Structures are given as structure tokens and as C-alpha cells.
Amino acid sequence: MSRVGKKPVSLPSGVSAKVDGQKVSVKGAKGELFFTVPDDVSVALDGSQVKVDPRAETKRARAMWGMSRAMINNLVTGVSKGFERKLEITGVGYKAAVAGKNLQLSLGFSHDVNYPIPAGIAIATPRPTEIVISGIDRRQVGQVAAEIRSYRPPEPYKGKGVKYEGEFIFRKEGKKK
């Protein structure tokens, strides 16, 4: 039994949800998002709560039950509060700056890396060594953060590169002569 799926998703004030077959639409102060629930799961709107139930007692239905409830909860959180991901840049001369609709990264290459900022995502650089990515879609915020990190992932010897805030980098000792 899914412990996540059993709990209904409550809608805070200012957030409305609409269930149309297998499609769940959630509208709030920050925008509107939707999610198509798999056929193994049924969704019902009960007052100010969205309830998710499996249609059968199969392993796939139980897996989709918890996942669907979590996805709907992410929609509600996204349109009410939004999501944020922070990246830290470590290395001499490594820096980031927002230039128009591009994020300009100096990461030790012979040229700057220009990352086009996608629609629905806001990127800020409070300090040259810090990147703050925010938006209403959790998946998209995480994807953008992963793409930026992939330009120069942290290396284990000096720890130089782009890492998530609070990420632990396992450090290696260099060769001894």
C-alpha cells in the first residue's frame, strides 16, 4: 500500500483544481499547470481536496498511485509558492552573470558559455559565484539546474566547478611522489 497515495492533496486558499477525465489542472497566483494521470489511477476532486486511488491492486497501479499524488502535490506547491534551486560556483575566475535572456558562464574554457534562459524560468545571480533558479514547474527548475551544472561538474581534487547548494563533494588526495 502506498503511504504517499493515501493522503489527499489539500488545496490552499487561492488555488483551484479541475479534474477532466485523467487530466488535472491546477490554477493559482503564480500560474497554471496540468498533469495527465496514468490510466492505472483514478482522480477525484472532493471539495478542497484532490484524492487519488488505484484502479486495481497491481504493482504498477500502486507505483503510479504514489507518483500521481506526488505530482499533483508538486503542481499545487508550484502555483502557490514556486520552486527554487541554488547553484554555487567554485574556482578561480569562475563566475556567472545574467545578460538579457542568457546566462553567461565563465568556467575556465577558452570562451564564455551562453545558456539561453527557457520560458517560465527566472535566473538571478546575487553574487558572481551564486546562481538562483526559480519557477513554478519543479521538473523544469531541476532540469535547468542539471543542465547548468553539466557544463562544469565539480571535480574531486580541488572541488572546482558548479555544484548544488549544500552538495557534498567527495575529495580525493593527489598522487604522492
Number of domains: 2
Strand order of the largest sheet: 11-12-7-13
Q: How large is the radius of gyration?
A: 21 Å
How does the helix and strand content classify structurally? alpha+beta
Biggest sheet, open or closed, and with what strands and sense? 4 strands, antiparallel
Strand content: 35-45%
Task: Describe the 3D structure.
It is a single chain. It is built from 3 helices and 13 strands, in the order αββββββαββββββαβ. Helices cover 23% and strands 37% of the residues. It starts with a helix and ends in a 13-residue tail after the last strand. The chain has helices at 3-6, 59-80, 138-151, and strands at residues 9-10, 16-20, 23-27, 32-36, 41-46, 49-54, 83-90, 95-99, 102-106, 113-116, 121-124, 130-135, 161-164. With 177 residues, the chain is α+β, with helices and mostly antiparallel strands. The relative contact order is 0.14. The protein is elongated, with a radius of gyration of 21 Å. A 4-stranded antiparallel sheet has the order 11-12-7-13, covered by helices on one side.
Brief rundown of the structure:
The protein has 177 residues and is α+β, with helices and mostly antiparallel strands.
Task: Give the key terms.
2 domains; Outer Surface Protein A, domain 3; 177 residues; 4-stranded antiparallel sheet; alpha+beta
